Amino acid sequence: MRKVFEMDHPLIQHKLTLIRSKDTGSKEFRELVKEVSMLMGYEVTRHLPLEDIEIETPVCKATSKVLAGRKLGIVPILRAGLGMVDGFLSLLPAAKVGHVGLYRDPETLEPVEYYCKVPTDVNERELLVVDPMLATGGSARAAIRFIKEKGATNIKFVCLIGCPEGIKALHDEHPDVDIYIGSIDEKLNSHAYIEPGLGDAGDRLYGTK
Ligand code: PRP
Ligand code: URA
After folding, report:
1. Which of 35, 70, 85, 166 lies deepest, with the highest CB count within 10 Å?
2. Ligand 1 pocket: which residues have CB below 6 Å?
3. Distance in angstroms (rounded) separating the CA atoms of residues 111 and 101
């Protein structure tokens, strides 16, 4: 079943408002993207299985829970996805990190691939593909296609801001991929930018134009 999880936690919504504002500079923007990614990480990892182990507290012996050792991977879509990696790694320090390099051709708006390296044992891992924006959906669709070609079968997509057009496009090609999203905005504009959105995520993260 296709699933989209919009995260309505007040802290995520508050920080997204700061991220959206054109008055937020690159330094603060980067910090906020990291913080929101970490908060989203709590929701995205909610389903992780636990197992019981025996421990001894200072008071007595006890049975207590630990993560059941599921292998995880984080795969940012370059460039802007890099801004989300540290937030996820601070929650999941043992996760491996892959990279998919794509950019949207400004004329055709089609994604152009320039790099793809996935974590080891990719077929055994749950992969979190991260990118702040899901606009036309072209980049996410292509990134996930490349990762599947390398053997990945268990993938979730995590983004800060998306729109109905991007969600539909991604699920049309990859109905098995759950989408975790901070905000589903109103629409794409005629330049394929999300409205209200946050502008160009890569440029805002890295201070380019
Ligand atoms: C942005 C963003 C997504 C893509 C979303 O990247 O980070 O990857 O656009 O748009 P889409 O859903 O229409 O494909 P961009 O192509 O600007 O590259 P960058 O990360 O290198 O700035
Ligand atoms: N890429 C971005 O960075 N922002 C948008 O609004 C759309 C695509």
Report:
1. 166
2. 77, 79-80, 103-104, 111, 131-140, 166, 192, 200-202
3. 10
